[in-house]
Design brief:
TIM Barrel; 8-stranded mixed beta sheet; globular; single chain
Length: about 290
């Protein structure tokens, strides 16, 4: 199948390009990975400019075979968790005076706890240097392991994020090693353990879904009390990846945003170039509200 021609509205913001080079230099010196580069995010300059960064821990090789993702999947290159990584992330967060960090990961099904303990170490080290910093975790499904999920929740992330990515009927084609209900159960369990925890999930569109199917996913996420939703256009990383079926017009993204808010989400980011960590720091005003049970 040939590539669809990209429309004019799919142009990324070049804000912060100088800052991006500066931050990328330090990350390479500290042997750190950013999902911004590994997943080819179009917004990294803007996020860095806002005092926000997304660190991808546990290496840059994924054990899953999702067809939408640009992250390397060559398991022969996979390495054990880097014991220096938590302190390196803490050091860079302090150097850059970050106010909000997102800690995400490749899926590490090869590890007994999916890397949960490493998440905890990273969060603890970052907070040693800056007690005021806000931390969002964007986790894999950890194969539904409640003990692993509990480890992460007990480390008190400010926002708990796990993406459902797409509609249920496309899972076999797009993310065949994942299970839609398992992802919902991960989000549900987080709220059961810590009722005032802000939870978040994200969706890609343009994979062949209908509006009604997107609305159904919104309903499923609200049933497990997810607070924050991100919706963005799927962009095919290469000819080897799942083909884009449609470039969704910005007016439809705005429709999705309005309907999601009507369904009860506290915060919705919905636009063609939105990614899971896009404007993640906008969750900050809602942290106090949820902690008070609002």
């Amino acid at each position: 199948m040939e590539y669809l021609r990209k429309p004019k509205w799919l142009k990324s913001n070049k804000l912060g390009s100088t800052n991006t080079q500066y931050i990328t230099k330090f990350m390479r010196e500290l042997n750190l990975h950013s999902v911004c580069e590994s997943a080819q995010c179009p917004n990294k300059g803007e996020c860095f400019e806002r005092g926000t960064a997304t660190f991808m821990i546990l290496g840059d090789i994924c054990t899953r075979n999702c067809r939408f993702c640009a992250v390397d999947k060559d398991k022969s290159k996979i390495l054990p968790p880097d014991p220096n990584e938590p302190k390196a992330i803490a050091e860079l967060s302090k150097k850059l005076n970050l106010k909000y960090v997102v800690i995400t990961t490749v899926t590490r099904d090869d590890l007994d706890d999916g890397g949960a303990e490493h998440f905890v170490q990273v969060m603890n080290e970052v907070r040693k240097n800056n007690k005021e910093i806000k931390i969002e975790v964007l986790i894999s499904d950890l194969k539904g392991d409640k003990n692993a999920i509990l480890k992460i929740i007990n480390a008190n992330p400010d926002v708990f994020n796990h993406n459902v990515e797409t509609i249920p009927k496309l899972y076999n084609k797009v993310r065949p090693m994942a299970i839609y209900q398992r992802s919902l159960d991960v989000l549900k369990y987080a709220r059961e353990i810590k009722p005032n925890l802000l939870t978040k999930s994200g969706l890609m569109v343009g994979l062949g879904e209908t509006k009604e199917e997107i609305f159904e996913v919104m309903d499923d996420l609200r049933k497990v009390d997810v607070n924050i939703l991100t919706i963005g256009q799927y962009l095919q990383p290469s000819k080897k990846h799942y083909p884009v079926q449609e470039y969704v017009h910005p007016s439809i993204f705005e429709e999705y945003r309005q309907i999601a808010l009507e369904k009860g989400f506290l915060l919705v980011e919905s636009a063609p170039l939105v990614r899971s960590s896009y404007h993640a720091d906008r969750a900050i005003p809602y942290l106090t509200k949820t902690q008070k049970g609002v």
